Amino acid sequence: MSKAAGSVDRRSFLSTAATALAAIALQETAAAQTQVSTTTIKAVAFDAFAIFDPRSVYRKVEELFPGQGATVSERWRTRQFEYTWLRNSMRDYADFWHVTQDALNYAAEESGITLSSEERTVLMAAYSALKPWPDAAAAVRKLRDRGLRLAVLSNMTPAMMQACLKSSGLGEAFELALSTDRVGVFKPDPAAYHIGLDGFRLRRNQIAFAAFGGWDAAGAKRFGYPTFWVNRLGVPAEKLGSSADASYSDLSALPDFIDSL
After folding, report:
1. How confident is the model at residue 18 (pLDDT cuts 50, 70, 90)?
2. What pTM did the predictor assign?
3. At what angle do helices 117-126 and 96-110 cross, to 10 degrees?
4. Annotated catalytic residue: which of 47, 95, 135, 216?
5. Same domain, 110 and 170
6. Where residue 62 sits, what CATH number does that domain have?
């Protein structure tokens, strides 16, 4: 081989290698910048109780009524959600604060307790100071780092959600706080889930929904959201004809669920 030919071959090899390395570098940079490009999911909507831990409310009940906290709390929690469903059925909307207070009054009366106005105020105020579940901050941060848009989509009133976002320290992570007050019906009415489409201006298959209640998971899935059930209570799935696409005991598996879509 002549000296000139060898020089050309080396130049050709080096040029080809440089081009290939540059292409690999560009691919790696693009992958790092668009970690969600492999999924259609652009946003995640959370039920409030998937993020906010209500157990501090029930501890407050026990403080005020020693030995009766578990019973009163269970009755309060049960009526709280039953009243949302009953009001949907009756087409007689009252916001979640009102419903929660009605449920508390019922639970106290059923338990033989006469609530003072001060006790009622203390217990209701506890719903505006909820802290996040221990796993929530890390999961939310991971989703935000991937470029996903986040919202709370809840039966809570706007004031309750904003207070809990502030109390939890997670307010800056969430783009939207979507209350069913906007449509005057509670989940699992389809109109309540539709506010996620209006808020994000995305399609159903682009929004993942993280539910706390099994009934909420069934409703979100029936509406058309890719649905992750945060089954913190370890209860069976509701028998409502639809069920979550995936479930786990906390939010730690949610990013992997979104990656799988």
Report:
1. very low
2. 0.84
3. 130
4. 47
5. no
6. 1.10.150.240
